[in-house]
Amino acid sequence: MFVLVVGGGKVGYYLTKELIESGHEVALMEKDRARADQIADEIGSIVIAHDGCEGKYLAEAGSNRADVVAAVTGDDEDNLVICQMAKHHFDVPRTIARVNNPKNEELFRHLGVDELISPTRMILGSIEQDIPVHELLHLAALGENELELIEAHLQDGSPAVGRAPKDLDIPEGCSLFAVIRDGVATPLRPDTVLEVGDKVIAIGKNECEKMLHDQLIGGETVRG
Amino acid sequence: MNIVIVGCGRVGAALAETFDRAGNRVVILDESTRSFDRLPSSFGGEAVRGDGTDEDVLRRAGAEEADLFIALTEGDNRNIMAAQLAVEALGARKVIAKINDPVRATAYAELGIATLCRTGLMIDAINTYLGLPASGLAGMLAPTGHHPGGEHHQHEPGEAVGVGVPTEQPGVPAQPSQPSAPAGLTQEA
Fold it and tell me: How far apart are the two ends of chain A, measured CA to CA in Å?
């Protein structure tokens, strides 16, 4: 298979190396001459020191006979244009684009890019699996006495669900005073039983935050 | 008319001023606030600092359903992406992108974007001045094909867009009024 890789950053460099090792024919386009020379010194004369967005150089790189074009530069607009030019101007059967802004995914797909790789989305995905989905939300800092207005969104697994404020161990100097349920705010009474989805509004000193967190959010990491 | 211009260089600023004076609602975007110095103090439109290839930025700037969207930054690919966002995501009616690489300019005209190529314009201006034959590189290309997204109906090539600018005003090219052979628009054969 003949693969044309555009963009000689870390991704393009390692991708090219791996492809060569798997026995594919590869050409790498990198517009920065110094970077292109550096890669060429190591992996040989398959590096083309030209801008892969420029039609003339895409043609010279043999894109009309490429089976795959992989656009892996750091700029979304460049990757989009490389893939579109490859697809519509050089009839490349398969185009792959690196997408940095996850919001661009839909547009790229819509415009005919065959495959999208989004490092941002992948990293985001792994992070969201490992951190609590909901933390305490700081609504406002209230002046002199280091008081803060805090919102806690109760999730499954919160120790406060099914219990009322009088049964919770609320730190001194801290007050739970309202609950928002189905968009309606009501004063939180000592015997109001809390439910999943409730947003509890509290006011308290900064140092109470850890205890509030344990009581309302729970100490354990929620896995998404 | 709602007009959005991405890139406040000399051309962008001059167009913004003209369109604004003619009573249109004009939004001009640029990544650098300094470039807004090119706008006259009388400019009544909006100057928004931001990346014209970011859909959120364009929406916040009020670029949805623009009657005319012109991408004039110094980056061909930025202009291409902004123009395609305008067509696909924002429902712009008429879109023009400056693309200085003649190969890309032709390719995107075929994909349904009106393109403006400084390379072609300048070469032919010089050729004309020197009495040499035309280069064959088109300066302005009307869309010859349809944009792959295609749901939003773009203006037909050469279809007039009434920006309310008097055509006799010096320095302002006449708006093409006929679908055939509009002045300054070379349609690809």
Answer: 39
Mark yes or no for CB contact A85/B80 under 8 Å. Answer: no
Nearest to B124 by CA among B135, B113, B114, B109: B135
Please give the helix or strand (H or E) that residue A43 lies within, else none: helix A33-43
Cα separations in angstroms, B134 against A174, B115, B139: 80, 18, 11
The whole-angstrom separation of Cα A186 and Cα A166 is: 17
The whole model's pTM is what?
0.68
Residue A24 has a pLDDT of 95
Structural domain range at position A151: 137-216
Nearest CA in chain A to B111: A88
Between CA B10 and CA B16, with CA B13 as vertex, the angle to 5 degrees is 145
If one counts every other C-beta atom within 10 angstroms of the C-beta of residue A113, the result is 25
Which residue is it, tokens 């009657």? B67
ipTM higher than threshold 0.85: no
| Residue reference for tokens 């975007």 | B29
In chain A, DSSP finds a helix count (H) and a strand count (E) of: 7, 11
Give the β-pairing of A147-153 and A199-205. antiparallel
Domain with A191 in it: what CATH number? 3.30.70.1450
A98 domain residue, yes or no: yes
Residues A151-204 have pLDDT tens digits of 888 888 888 999 998 888 888 888 898 999 988 999 999 899 999 989 999 998
Number of domains in chain A: 2
Is A80–B80 a contact, with Cβ atoms under 8 angstroms apart? yes
A10 touches chain B (CB under 8 A): no
Please, what CATH class does the domain formed by B2-141 belong to? Answer: alpha beta
pLDDT confidence of B161, banded at 50, 70, 90?
low
Chain A contact present for B85, CB below 8 A: yes
Answer whether A27's CB lies under 8 Å from A61's CB. yes
